[in-house]
TrEMBL record:
<feature type="transmembrane region" description="Helical">
    <location>
        <begin position="200"/>
        <end position="222"/>
    </location>
</feature>
<dbReference type="InterPro" id="IPR026030">
    <property type="entry name" value="Pur-cyt_permease_Fcy2/21/22"/>
</dbReference>
<keyword id="KW-1133">Transmembrane helix</keyword>
<keyword id="KW-0812">Transmembrane</keyword>
<protein>
    <submittedName>
        <fullName>Cytosine permease</fullName>
    </submittedName>
</protein>
<keyword id="KW-0813">Transport</keyword>
<feature type="transmembrane region" description="Helical">
    <location>
        <begin position="385"/>
        <end position="408"/>
    </location>
</feature>
<feature type="transmembrane region" description="Helical">
    <location>
        <begin position="49"/>
        <end position="75"/>
    </location>
</feature>
<dbReference type="GO" id="GO:0022857">
    <property type="term" value="F:transmembrane transporter activity"/>
</dbReference>
<feature type="transmembrane region" description="Helical">
    <location>
        <begin position="161"/>
        <end position="180"/>
    </location>
</feature>
<keyword id="KW-0472">Membrane</keyword>
<feature type="transmembrane region" description="Helical">
    <location>
        <begin position="343"/>
        <end position="364"/>
    </location>
</feature>
<comment type="similarity">
    <text>Belongs to the purine-cytosine permease (2.A.39) family.</text>
</comment>
<dbReference type="InterPro" id="IPR001248">
    <property type="entry name" value="Pur-cyt_permease"/>
</dbReference>
<feature type="transmembrane region" description="Helical">
    <location>
        <begin position="271"/>
        <end position="294"/>
    </location>
</feature>
<feature type="transmembrane region" description="Helical">
    <location>
        <begin position="420"/>
        <end position="439"/>
    </location>
</feature>
<feature type="transmembrane region" description="Helical">
    <location>
        <begin position="96"/>
        <end position="115"/>
    </location>
</feature>
Length: 444
């Protein structure tokens, strides 16, 4: 395992808690590790969906701010567990789910592959546009590069994101300036009444799905921090990195919707005026995709180990990359906006219930303790089965509220396309599992 800031050795440490003597670093590192992965064309493209849905600039931006803030709060809270446990998020979740955490880990592993596809798609497109090579070959290069970073692990990811934060801020600042100075930015809503309200709620959910998708990774990137690291600092830097990046980059997407909706890479080059600036922008987009997906590969490898698959973490990171290739080719082969939105929403529908269950368990388990060793915690079988039951019940109840090209529930249809599934998922899980734990506490 890495022993200090700048230790670039390959991390072979798996899901076992990091011993107190091997902790290092400060909370400020969390700003860049959470900022850089969000500055990419996936987030820009998500911003364009606000205009595609008919909200226009200001309503679209407001919806994205609301969704981003709610999702970032959940990730920031879970990030504070890293220094207190020394463990990644799914091993921490074992305290609530017990042996059934393997089911959740499989779902998270599949989700990490889906996110590889959503992000790698635009990195491959940018590289193909830049070098004039076939899309599939560009995707292979992007996936191979991110796989290398993911294999090296925790410290290399932190260092790469620190460097990429500076590069990405500079590039996207120029991109935003070029956009504002040369293209129409403010667009008006094309919907009204109940249809406009439904689209507004749907866009909140889309933004929420982006931010909260990191919740099952949260403590993966704070687990090496010393036990005495300020919880407020961990929360604040995590929230700042996520929220600032998401809001700024999605705002660019809303403003550039007319140019970027169909031809993202070509649109970027056009906005930058072609030439050297256009080429640099495409290169940075490809690099940003690598930096973001390295975290998906890393956390996906930890998920696979949590399942109990006996494979070294670097090897499992490579497996995630290989499967992601097929998903990217599928996304690229059809109606991109429709497929993108469908996968984006569906891949994270389970996370609000996950957050509710682990947070409730943590409240009971950590009360009065500054540190918790998840490897030493016991989970009664009944508690574990109730956690898993609440998890699936919440998902089932949320299905009628879903609105994607994969599932359009009757409630979402009645509400003019509004997708309330994330909120229903969280509330049902909290009610079922929280009610069970409350009754058990009263009996004890």
């Amino acid at each position: 395992m890495p022993s200090h800031v700048g230790d670039m050795a390959v991390e072979t440490q798996g899901i076992a808690p990091i011993p107190p003597g091997n902790r290092y670093g400060g909370a400020r590192r969390l700003f860049t590790v959470w900022f850089a992965p969000q500055v990419n064309m996936t987030v820009v493209f998500t911003g364009t969906l606000a205009v595609v849905l008919g909200l226009g600039f200001w309503l679209g931006l407001l919806a994205m701010v609301i969704g981003t803030v709610v999702g970032s709060l959940a990730v920031s809270y879970l990030s504070t567990w890293g220094p207190r446990t020394g463990a990644a998020q799914l091993p921490n979740a074992r305290m609530a789910f017990g042996g059934t955490v393997g089911v959740v880990a499989v779902i998270q592993w599949l989700s990490s592959i889906a996110w590889d596809g959503l992000v790698g798609l635009f990195g491959g497109e940018a590289l193909a546009e830049l070098l004039g090579m076939p899309f599939w070959l560009a995707v292979v290069i992007v996936l191979a590069a991110q796989g290398v970073v993911g294999v090296f692990g925790y410290e290399v990811i932190h260092r790469v994101q620190a460097v990429m934060t500076v590069i990405l801020i500079a590039t996207f600042a120029v991109f935003a300036w070029k956009l504002i100075s040369g293209h129409p930015v403010i667009s008006l809503p094309t919907l009204s009444g109940a249809d406009l309200a439904g689209a507004f709620v749907l866009e909140i959910t889309i933004a929420l799905s982006l931010a909260i998708s990191w919740a099952s990774y949260a403590s993966d990137y704070s687990r090496y921090l010393p036990e005495n690291t300020s919880r407020k600092a961990v929360f604040g830097y995590t929230f700042g990195g996520l929220a600032v990046a998401y809001i700024a980059v999605q705002a660019i997407g809303v403003a550039a919707a007319g140019t970027l909706t169909d031809q993202t890479a070509q649109g970027v080059r056009e906005i930058m005026g072609g030439g050297v600036l256009g080429a640099v922008a495409l290169l940075v987009i490809a690099l940003g995709s690598v930096a973001s997906n390295a975290m998906n590969d890393y956390s996906g490898s930890l998920a696979l180990q949590t399942v109990g698959v006996r494979v070294r973490r670097p090897v499992s990171a490579v497996v995630v990359v290989m499967i992601a290739f097929a998903l990217i080719m599928w996304l690229h082969s059809g109606d991109l906006a429709t497929r993108f939105q469908g996968v984006l929403l569906f891949v994270s529908y389970w996370i609000p219930a996950f957050v509710a269950i682990v947070a409730i368990d943590w409240r009971y388990r950590s009360a009065g303790r500054d540190t918790v060793n998840p490897a030493a915690e016991l989970t009664p079988r009944t508690d574990a089965l109730m956690a898993l039951a609440a998890f699936f019940v919440a998902f089932a109840v949320a299905i009628p509220f879903m609105h994607t090209n994969l599932i359009v529930g009757p409630v979402a249809t009645a509400l003019h396309g509004a997708d309330l599934a994330y909120f229903v998922n969280f509330l049902v899980a909290a009610a079922v599992y929280g009610g069970y734990r409350l009754m058990r506490a009263r009996r004890a």
